[in-house]
TrEMBL record:
Residues 250-254 are annotated as: ACP-binding. This is Beta-ketoacyl-[acyl-carrier-protein] synthase III. CDD domains: KAS_III. It comes from Amycolatopsis iheyensis. The gene is fabH. Transmembrane segments: none annotated.
Length: 327
């Protein structure tokens, strides 16, 4: 026995759910033909090897934090949540030009969220799924009531414009989700991990440009990510046949198709809708999953109540996925 006082905990909730989604892209559209004027590439190579038709590039004076504010506001509006109700802001990204001040606190202030817990999270292209997992568990544990998760990137600042393998892939944008409590769990447990032994496959050069050993990353993603997605279903008590919408990180359309093929070989339905937002958005790293799902909802290919399976993967190498119900 001890006379130490017992600690009390915040009341949590049985489950959590995504209350709303929002996204933002800069206006400037860059086609493959535009790129072929400034580097040795062509539309046929890009479409057949990567699946991109066009992407959005920010202007010099448009910042990652600007995209995040716009996507965050849109998600709050979609959720019908007032900024004053949000107590936590998580901002997955890997392209903030400076490490301090963090993006989350600045973005929260600009949206009008009063004094939230605010932090950036870097798990590269897996960042949104990491952030969603943390948000869900904060809500369930009672540490937060409403969490705004915003994946935002300005990758054009981090790509050498003469590096044709990367300059054609990466693009700019943001996607956001609002997470709150729910009696019935509507966000499954996150299935996450990292392969630090493969750390050298993606990184930054001394000039602070992204490099990747493309083919090795491609092989890893096409073989190792479908099992992570399957594990996310298993821990949520779901089967591949339950998935209505598959949203893999939009790294390369051939990787997306390989993941979908593996899931279908394991029981996912032919009619399962598969995100192909990379065609018109490029690879926006931690923004790509919420950006793709928001676009799919607007296009009517993903509907409220659908079972979504998201899986992100990238530098680290890091990966994470979870199942959740589409708001
Ligand atoms: O988001 C984070 C995770 N990242 C990924 O998941 C990316 C995974 N990797 C990939 O998606 C692909 O590896 C890339 C898109 C990055 C590159 O595609 P690849 O098919 O692996 O091309 P490669 O770099 O191996 O190059 C193949 C050929 C080379 O020519 P040779 O040496 O065979 O004559 C390249 O010089 O394609 C050439 N090439 C290009 N040609 C026209 C490379 N980039 C281009 C280009 N346009 N933009």
């Amino acid at each position: 026995m001890t006379d130490r006082p017992a600690l009390s905990l915040n009341p949590g909730s049985r489950g959590s759910r995504v209350l709303g989604l929002g996204s933002f892209q800069p206006e400037k559209v860059v086609t493959n033909d535009d790129l072929s004027k400034v580097m040795d590439t062509n539309d046929e190579w890009i479409q057949s090897r990567v699946g991109i038709v066009e992407r959005r590039f920010a202007e010099k004076d448009e910042l990652l934090t600007d995209f995040a504010v716009a996507a965050g506001k849109a998600a709050l509006e979609d959720a019908g949540v007032d900024p004053s109700e949000v107590d936590t802001v998580i901002l997955p990204n890997c392209t903030m030009p400076t490490l301090i001040p963090n993006a989350a606190a600045q973005v929260a202030a600009r949206i009008g969220i009063p004094n939230p817990g605010a932090f950036d999270l870097n798990a590269a292209c897996a960042g949104f799924c990491y952030g969603l997992g943390v948000a869900s568990d904060l809500v369930r544990a009672g540490s937060a009531k409403k969490v705004l998760v915003i994946g935002a990137e300005k990758l054009t600042d981090s790509v050498n414009p003469t590096d044709r393998a990367n300059a054609i892939i990466f693009a700019d944008g943001a996607g956001a989700a609002v997470v709150g409590a729910s009696d019935e769990p509507q966000i499954g447990p996150v299935s996450w991990g990292s392969a630090g032994d493969l750390v050298d496959l993606i990184g930054m050069t001394e000039e602070k440009f992204i490099y990747q050993e493309g083919q090795s990353v491609f092989r890893w993603a096409t073989t190792q990510i479908a099992p992570i997605a399957m594990r996310a279903l298993e821990v949520a008590g779901l089967k591949p046949s339950d998935v209505d919408v598959l949203v893999p990180h939009q790294a390369n359309l051939r990787i997306v198709e390989a993941i979908a093929k593996k899931l279908r070989a394991n029981g996912a339905r032919e009619e399962m809708v598969v995100a192909d937002d990379i065609k018109y958005s490029g690879n926006t790293s931690s923004a790509s999953i919420p950006l793709a799902l928001d676009h799919m909802r607007k296009a009517g290919t993903a509907k409220s109540g659908d079972v979504v399976l998201a899986v992100g993967f990238g530098a680290g190498l890091s990966y994470a996925g979870q199942a959740f119900v589409c708001p």
